[in-house]
Amino acid sequence: MTTPASRHHKRPRGEGQWALGYREPLNKNEENKKNDDGLNVRQRIIDVYSKRGFDSIDPADLRGRMRWYGLYTQRKPGIDGGKTAILEPEELDDRYFMLRVRIDGGQLSLEQLRVLADISNLYGRGTADLTDRQNIQYHWIEIEAVPDIWARLEAVGLSTTEACGDTPRVILGCPLAGIDTEEVLDATEQIREVHDRFIGDPAYSNLPRKFKTAISGCPAHCTVHEINDVAFVAVVNEHGEKGYDLWVGGGLSTNPMFGKRIGVFVRPDQVGDVYGGVIGIFRDYGYRRLRHRARIKFLVNDWGVEKFRDVLQTEYLKEDLPDGPAPEQPRDSRRDHVGVHPQKDGNFYVGFAPRVGRVDGDKLHLIADLAERHGSARVRTTVEQKMVILDVAPDRVDSLVAELEAIDLQVNPSTFRRQTMACTGIEYCKLAIVETKATASHLIDELEKRLPAFAEPLTINVNGCPNSCARIQVADIGLKGQLVVNDQGEQVEGFQIHLGGSLGVNPGFGRKVRGLKTTADELPDYVERVVTHFEEQKKDGESFSD
Ligand code: SF4
C-alpha cells in the first residue's frame, strides 16, 4: 500500500524527515530541540537565570534555546575575524546578549516606539539597530534585565518570542499597508491572524530551521517575497477578486534560491490555513539531517512545485485551491518607501534613512516626539533598514522633513545613503569575519563626496561573513566579508565582490567573479571605479544589474 510517507520517500538515505519516520535526532541541534522545546526556556530565564546570573545558564540553553526568545550571546570584544572559525563557541561568547524584538508588519504605535527607546537606554547602552526584516536589535543586554524588558514589551503588545531560532520568525508586511494609494490590498488582518495562530505555538516551535514569512499587498513588492521561505503576494484574479499568489522556497545564505510560485490563488480568509499547511509541510517533511540543507528551499527544489502543491492540498488543506495569476511587476526598482508620498486619505507618509540602520534610544524618542508634534500616531519599519512616519497632514510635511534632516534622518538621501545596507558584523556577531556598519558608513561618506551627482538606483549590501543577513546576492554590489591579502602580503579585512544581483523584473543572483576582492581600506576606491565605469559604459535606460 502506498502511504503518504512512502510516496515521498525517494532519497536512498533519510534526510531526517519526521513524516518518513525519522524521529531520532540526527545532529546536535535536533537533539537539543528534542530534549526540550525552545519555548520552555522562558520560564527558566524568569525563575533562574535572571536571578542567578550568566554563569547559571545551561550551555544548551545559552547557545540554543535562548534564540527562541530572540537572545544571542554577542561576540566578545577584541577577537579578530581570523579567529572566528578557530575558536570554540564559548571563547567567542561575551556575557552580554543581542536581543531581537519582532515587529510584525513593521507596525508600531508611538507608545510602542517609546517603550523600545526606553529599553535601549535603560538596558542596551543606547543601541538599537533596524534590521532588514523590520525588527529592532539591541546589544549589551544582561540576562538579569530580560524579565523586565519582556514585561515592558508585553505591556504594549510587543514580544521577542520566536524572533530567532528554528521557528516562524517575524512576518514581513508593507509599511504602507492600508494607506498606499496603489496597494492591491491591505494585508494587516492576515499578518495578525498568522501571528496570533502560529507564533509561540509549541506545535510549530521545532522546525528544521528558521522560517521566514512575508504577507503583502504592496505594488512595489517591498517585502522581497522572492527570498522568503513563504510569501503571500497580493493579486487580483480573473473574476476581479483580491487575494494572494503563494510563493515558497526562497532564501539566500550559502545556497541562494528564489522562491517558486505554487500557482494557487489564496483568498484572504484562507491565508491562515494555507500558512499552516506550508509550515506543516516544512515541519513534517523538512530535512533535519544537515543544518545547511534544512531550509524549506531544498525540499521545494527536490519536490518541484507540482508535488508541493499536491501535498499541500491533499494532506494538509484537504481541498484544492484554484489556479491564480502571477503578481504584477514591481512599479519601481526601489522598494524602500523613502521620501514624501501621498496616502489614500490625502495625508502624506514620510520615509527616512538612518545610516545603515543604526539608530539609538534617544533618536527613537526624538522620532516619536517629532511624529506626535506633526499629528502622526504611527510609525513603521521597512525591510531596507529604514523608517516611515504615517498620516502627516499636507501643511505639516515640510516642517517634519526639516526636523528629521536636522537629526541626520534623511528624507531625500543620496543613492548611497538610501541603498547601502550592512549587517551586524564583527562588532557584535560571533560569526563575523570583518567589520561592517562603520565600514559601510565610511563608504557612504566617501561616495557622496566623490560622486555627488550620482542618482541612479544602486544597492550596496555589506555582509560580515558568507551568510547573507544583508542579502549580498541580490545587491548590485554585494560585499561578502572575508580576510584578504593586501599589497604588503598581510592578511587584512576585505570583501569578495558579487556584481549585478537584483530582484524584481529581471531577478538574478550577483556574479561572484573569481579573484575579485578588495581590502576594506580600498573599498571606496573600488566601488568608485565600478560606478564610474558603469556610468561611462551604460547604454540608454540600462540599469546597473543589466
Ligand atoms: Fe553575522 Fe555574517 Fe549575518 Fe553579518 S552576515 S550578521 S557577520 S552572520
From TrEMBL:
Residues 93-156, 341-406 form the Nitrite/Sulfite reductase ferredoxin-like domain. Keywords: 4Fe-4S, Heme, Iron, Iron-sulfur, Metal-binding, Oxidoreductase, Thioether bond. Its EC number is 1.8.7.1. Residues 164-319, 417-546 form the Nitrite/sulphite reductase 4Fe-4S domain. It is an enzyme of class 1 (oxidoreductase). It catalyses: hydrogen sulfide + 6 oxidized [2Fe-2S]-[ferredoxin] + 3 H2O = sulfite + 6 reduced [2Fe-2S]-[ferredoxin] + 7 H(+). PROSITE patterns: NIR_SIR. It holds the Pfam family NIR_SIR. Coiled coil: none annotated. SUPFAM superfamilies: Nitrite and sulphite reductase 4Fe-4S domain-like, Nitrite/Sulfite reductase N-terminal domain-like. Its cofactor is [4Fe-4S] cluster. It comes from the Bacteria. Residues 25-36, 329-343 have a biased composition (Basic and acidic residues). Signal peptide: none annotated. Residues 1-36, 319-343 are annotated as: Disordered. Residues 1-12 have a biased composition (Basic residues). Catalyzes the reduction of sulfite to sulfide, a step in the biosynthesis of sulfur-containing amino acids and cofactors. Belongs to the nitrite and sulfite reductase 4Fe-4S domain family. This is assimilatory sulfite reductase (ferredoxin). It comes from Nonomuraea recticatena.
